[in-house]
Amino acid sequence: MHTITILGDGGLGRAVEAAALERLRGSGRTAEVLVVGRPVSGRHERGALGHPDLVVEASRPDAVLANLEAAVAAGARRLVVATTGWAHDQPRVEQLLRESGAAAVTAPNFSLGVVLFGRLVETAVELFGSLDAFDPYLLEWHRRAKRDRPSGTAIDLARRIADRHPRLGSAADLEVVSVRAGSSPGMHLVGFDAPGETIELRLTARDRSAYAAGILAAADWLERSPREAGIHAFDLVVDELVAHQPIAA
Fold first, then answer.
1. What own/partner pairs with CB < 8 Å and gap ≥ 24 does 210-213 have?
2. Mean pLDDT, to the nearest integer, of 158-173?
3. Which member of 44, 142, 165, 188 is catalytic?
4. CATH for 112-204?
């Protein structure tokens, strides 16, 4: 039986579980969806992950490397890493994947809308960046329990803006504000302000279902054909969706 193992039993892990089970019910296919929380010891025992065909990492930044090591040891060769804030471990993760022949899709945000929003922001920067009167800025708001600040999505958007704006030397030159309050699943706003007017582009997540849909799309992409061992960007998945079929969030 096909097995999907989700590492992380928080809000995102449970959203992926719900989306996977709903899709299985609609397709008539059978598969096991296993959600595994973090063990007290800090490391998963090999047998606790079952025999996963696909592993979704949805835990916390400091657990990513150990979780992927456990997943690969359990036989997983297709992985989706939905956790953010683990950039310091990326070289070791890349090495692990290549040495084990495993392929992983990673992203600062698995919302299909966020990826397209990022491309829209790039176009806006090219338009407004040529006008000295407009200053760019970025605001992001997440639930108070979110650990990373700014969010992975905000870091990615800041990089996109800085790379294309003629007055910004790097993302550090951009005004970025992070709010951690309440229970917001995520809001990102990119603005351009001039003395007489303000233009804003805003993306607001209502719940985690959009992230779960993107994670399952990445899983499908890994399954459709053999992928080179290592890390693959979620943009590749979105490119195929935009080119070949309607996007269903």
1. 210/111, 210/112, 210/113, 210/114, 210/249, 211/12, 211/15, 211/16, 211/82, 211/109, 211/110, 211/111, 212/12, 212/15, 212/16, 212/18, 212/19, 212/20, 212/110, 213/19, 213/111, 213/112, 213/248, 213/249
2. 97
3. 142
4. 3.30.360.10
